[in-house]
Amino acid sequence: MAQTQTIAGREVQIDGQGSHTVVMLHGWPDTARLWDATVAALSPHYRCVRFTLPGYAEGDEARAYTLDEVVDMLRRVVDQAGGGWPVTLLLHDWGCAFGYRFVQRHSQRVARVIGVDVGDGGSRSHRAEIGFKGQAMVFGYQAWLALSWRIGGDLGDRMARWMARVLRCPVPQERIHARMGYPYWIAWTGSHGSYRAMRAFDPPCPMLFVYGQRKPFMFHSTAWAESLARRPLCRVLALPTGHWVMLGRAREFHAAVIDWLGSGDDQVRQSTHQ
Question: What is the pLDDT of residue 144?
Answer without folding.
Answer: 98
